[in-house]
Design a protein that fits this description.
Number of strands of chain B: 10
Number of strands of chain A: 9
GO molecular function (chain B): RNA binding
Helix content of chain B: 25-40%
Low-confidence stretches of chain A: 83-99, 216-226, 269-288
Strand content of chain B: 15-25%
CATH architecture of chain B: 2-Layer Sandwich
Strand order of the largest sheet of chain A: 1-2-3-5-4
Number of domains of chain A: 1
Distance between the termini of chain A: 35 Å
Organism (chain B): Neurospora hispaniola
Order of helices and strands of chain A: HEEEHEHEHEEHEHHEHHH
CATH architecture of chain A: 2-Layer Sandwich
Largest sheet of chain A: 5 strands, mixed
Radius of gyration of chain A: 26 Å
Protein name (chain B): 3' exoribonuclease family, domain 1-domain-containing protein
Oligomer: heterodimer
Strand content of chain A: 15-25%
Structural class of chain B: alpha+beta
GO biological process, one term (chain A): U4 snRNA 3'-end processing
CATH superfamily of chain A: GHMP Kinase, N-terminal domain
Family (chain B): Belongs to the RNase PH family.
Chain lengths: 390, 273
C-alpha cells in the first residue's frame, strides 16, 4: 500500500535525491538534519466518549486520530491453568509463570487501522496494524494491565484513523498517535474485590491511568509492574551509509533500506527481572537519568524505490546517438552487450533501483542509532512527554 | 434505553432540556487540515464528524467501496462525486464495528453523493473525481445531517463551485407512530435517544430557498404529522445555513487579515474587524 505508493519523480530526480542524501552530511529536501523529525501538533483527550484518545498532525498535513475503548469481558477458562481457586500459592514447584496470578492474553487487544480509500483488508493496512500491535504485545507486559481478576478482563479496542490521504508512509504518525492515546487512556477504578463480578467507581476523576504517571507511581502500589510507556515505532531508512530518520515520501522513494524499529521503555524493575544480560544491567546502573529503552521488534519495509524505473545512461541512449552509425549487425550486437553491462552496473548520476538485501552493518547501525542514550528514541519520548495529557 | 416521552407534555421540555424548536449547539471549523484541498470539522451536539475533500482530480484506480453520484465513471461529462464514510469503532457508546460493505453506510454514501452532485457544478470538471471522505468520531443522532453539513463546508473550503449551501437538519415528532395523539409537537434536531424512540426524518435544503435536496425518513410516521415535521425541518435547515455561512465568512475574514489570501475586488465594503 502506502510504502509502495507511486511517487511521480523521474529517474533524473531520483538520482539527484539519492546523490544529495548520500553526501556526508546528507542534504535532505526539506533541510532537516538526518535525525530530525518533522514538527507536529498533538493533543489528547479530544473524544470524551472514549477511554483515551489522541490526535497528531504532522507539518506536511497528515493527520491521525486514535481512540481507545475498553469493555469488560469474561475470561475464558483455560484448562492448562489450574488455579481457579486459591491454591495457586501452594503450587510453588510449578512454572514461574503459573505462579504469577496476573496474566494477559494477546486476544485482549484488538487493533484496527482505517485509511481512507483503502479497504480494511488491504495487505498494507493489515501489515500496518500487525506491526503496531506486534510492538505493543511484544513483551507481554501490556496485556497484564488489562487483567481485572481471574474471571474478567478488559478487552481493549484500538481504532486508528488516518484522516488525511496517506502522503507519506503513515507508520510513524500512527504509532506516535497510538502511543499518546494509550498514555491518556484511563480505566474505571475497580471497587469490587477478589474474583467477584467487577464493580466500578462511577467517578471518572478517580479512574487510574492505564499507564500510571511517574508522580502517582508511589500511590499505585497495587498496579501491575509499571512499565512506564507504550512502545513507539520509528521509521528509519538508509541511503548508502547514511541513516535518515522520519523520511518523507520523496526520501523513501530513494531508500536502499527501510526499517520499522519498535522501541519500548521499561521501568528498571522490569528490566532487571526480564533481561538477564549483564550488559543491560550495566547500562541501568551507569545512567539513572534518561529513558530505559528496550528494542521490541524490527521489521524491514519494502521501500518503494525498488519499483522505480531506472535511468538510461547517455552511452546507451539512442536519443544521444548511441546507436548512430551502427549498421553492421556485429557492431550492433557489441553495443547491445555494452548496454547490458551498463544496465547492470551503476553509472554515476544515473538512477538505478536498489537491488539485493541490506548490509548487516548498516542495519545494526540503524538499530543502534535508535537505541543509544540521547538517541532518536530518547528524543522522541522526551518530546512526547511535553504533550499535556488531560 | 426507553425514553420517557410522557414527561414532555408536563413542561414542554425534551430530555436534554431543549424546547421543540431549538437546535443543539453547532460548532464548525473549516480548513482544519493542510494536506487536503478542503476540510472541515463539525459538531452537532455530541455528533462529531470530520470531512476531507480531495479534487476535482483525475480519477485514480478505483479502490474499495465508493458510490458514484452525478453520473458514474470518470469518462463522463460531469465530475463524479465519490463519498467514503468511515464510522470509527469508538464513535458510539457501545463499540460496534461496521465493515465497509455495510448497507447503512452505503446508503449514507449514495445519499450524500447524490445531494452534493446536484449542488456542485460538476459539469465544469469533466473526466474527474471529487473525493469526499467523511470520518465519524462521535455519534449522538442526526448523523446524516451532520455528514451533509460537514461535506458542504469542506466543498466550500476546496473552492468547488456550487449553487448554494446544502444545509441539513433532522425533525421528529413527540409521539410515536402508534399513539393517536392529536397534540403531538414536531421536534427539531433529534439526539440519539429521541431517534431511538420517536419517528424522525432528515431534510436538507438548498441555501435560503425551500427547495428540498434530501429527504430521508426511515421510521413510520402518520401522514398527518409529516407536514409539520417537514416544515420544522426546513426551518431548521435555514438556521443551520446561517451558522455554516457565518463559519465560512469568519474564516474568510481571518484569512484576509492574516494575509493568506489577497483582498478581492469589491470586498472593500466588507466589514473587517
Amino acid at each position: 500500500m502506502a510504502s509502495s505508493q507511486h511517487v511521480l519523480l523521474s529517474p533524473a530526480e531520483l538520482a539527484y535525491l539519492h546523490a544529495s542524501l548520500s553526501l556526508t552530511p546528507p542534504i535532505r529536501p526539506d533541510g532537516r538534519s538526518p535525525t530530525q523529525f518533522r514538527p507536529l501538533v498533538a493533543e489528547t483527550g479530544i473524544l470524551p466518549g472514549t477511554n483515551g484518545s489522541a490526535r497528531i498532525c504532522f507539518a506536511d498535513g497528515t493527520e491521525a486520530i486514535v481512540g481507545v475503548k475498553a469493555e469488560v469481558e469474561r475470561t475464558r477458562t483455560r484448562h492448562d491453568f489450574p488455579s481457579l481457586d486459591e491454591s495457586a500459592e501452594d503450587d510453588d514447584d510449578l512454572d514461574d509463570n503459573q505462579n504469577d496470578v496476573v496474566k494477559g492474553d494477546n486476544d485482549w487487544v484488538e487493533m484496527t487501522v482505517e485509511i481512507p480509500g483503502y479497504r480494511d483488508d488491504d495487505a498494507g493496512t493489515v501489515f500496518l496494524s500487525a506491526m503496531l500491535s506486534e510492538a505493543l504485545l511484544a513483551d507481554g507486559e501490556f496485556t497484564k494491565r488489562l487483567w481485572i481478576n481471574q474471571r474478567f478482563h478488559w478487552k481493549l479496542y484500538l481504532d486508528i484513523l488516518l484522516i488525511s490521504p496517506p502522503l507519506s508512509y503513515p507508520l510513524p504518525l500512527l504509532s506516535l498517535t497510538t502511543h499518546l492515546a494509550l498514555l491518556a487512556a484511563r480505566l474505571p477504578r475497580l471497587k469490587s474485590e477478589g474474583d467477584e463480578d467487577p464493580l466500578f467507581d462511577d467517578d471518572w476523576a478517580a479512574a487510574p491511568y492505564l499507564y500510571p504517571r511517574p508522580s502517582e507511581k508511589g500511590s499505585k502500589a497495587t498496579a501491575p509492574a509499571p512499565a512506564a510507556r507504550p512502545p513507539v515505532t520509528l521509521l528509519v531508512m538508509a541511503v548508502g551509509n547514511n541513516i535518515i530518520f522520519d523520511p518523507s515520501k520523496e526520501e523513501l522513494a530513494v531508500a536502499d533500506v527501510a526499517l520499522a524499529v519498535s522501541v519500548g521503555e521499561s521501568s528498571s524493575s522490569t528490566t532487571s527481572t526480564t533481561s538477564s544480560k549483564p550488559t543491560a544491567m550495566d547500562i541501568d546502573t551507569e545512567e539513572t537519568k534518561g529513558h530505559n529503552l528496550r528494542l521490541l521488534s524490527v521489521r524491514t519495509i519494502d521501500p518503494p524505490s525498488r519499483l522505480t524505473p531506472p535511468g538510461i545512461p547517455n552511452a546507451s541512449n539512442s536519443a544521444y546517438g548511441a546507436n548512430a552509425g551502427a549498421k553492421d549487425t556485429e557492431k550492433k550486437k557489441q553495443q547491445q552487450e555494452q548496454a547490458r553491462t551498463a544496465e547492470s552496473e551503476a553509472v554515476e548520476g544515473v538512477w538505478k533501483a536498489p537491488r539485493g538485501g541490506a548490509k548487516t552493518l548498516v542495519m545494526a547501525t540503524m538499530v543502534q542509532k535508535v537505541l543509544e542514550k540521547g538517541g532518536v528514541a530518547d528524543e522522541v519520548l522526551d518530546a512526547l512527554d511535553g504533550v499535556d495529557l488531560n | 434505553m426507553p425514553l420517557d416521552t410522557s414527561a414532555y407534555s408536563l413542561a414542554l421540555l425534551r430530555v436534554d432540556g431543549r424546547r421543540w424548536n431549538e437546535l443543539r449547539r453547532i460548532h464548525a471549523q473549516i480548513r482544519t487540515q493542510a494536506a487536503a484541498d478542503g476540510s472541515s470539522y463539525l459538531e452537532m451536539g455530541h455528533t462529531k464528524v470530520m470531512c476531507v475533500v480531495n479534487g476535482p482530480s483525475e480519477p485514480g484506480p478505483r479502490r474499495g467501496a465508493t458510490s458514484g453520484g452525478g453520473s458514474g465513471g470518470g469518462q463522463s461529462k460531469n465530475a463524479e462525486v465519490a463519498v467514503n464514510i468511515v464510522i470509527a469503532g469508538f464513535s458510539s457508546v457501545d463499540r460496534k464495528r461496521r465493515g465497509r460493505g455495510d448497507k447503512h453506510i452505503l446508503e449514507l454514501q449514495s445519499t450524500i453523493s447524490q445531494a452534493l452532485a446536484a449542488s456542485l457544478h460538476t459539469h465544469l470538471f469533466p473526466h474527474s473525481t471529487i473525493n469526499i471522505s467523511l470520518h465519524v468520531l462521535s455519534q449522538d443522532g442526526s448523523l446524516l445531517a451532520a455528514l451533509i453539513n460537514a461535506a458542504t463546508l469542506a466543498c466550500v473550503d476546496a473552492g468547488i463551485p456550487m449553487t448554494d449551501y446544502v444545509a441539513a437538519c433532522t425533525a421528529g415528532s413527540t409521539s410515536t407512530y402508534a399513539a393517536n395523539d392529536e397534540g403531538a409537537d414536531p421536534l427539531l434536531d433529534m439526539n440519539h435517544q429521541e431517534e431511538q424512540e420517536l419517528p424522525g426524518l432528515t431534510v436538507a435544503t438548498l441555501g435560503d430557498s425551500d427547495r428540498v435536496a434530501v429527504l430521508v425518513c426511515e421510521s413510520r410516521v402518520q401522514v398527518s404529522r409529516l407536514e409539520g415535521m417537514l416544515a420544522v425541518g426546513v426551518d431548521g435547515c435555514k438556521q443551520v445555513r446561517e451558522i455554516l455561512d457565518r463559519v465560512v465568512r469568519e474564516k474568510g475574514i481571518k484569512m484576509i487579515q492574516e494575509g493568506t489570501v489577497e483582498r478581492g475586488v469589491g470586498l472593500n465594503d466588507m466589514e473587517l474587524d
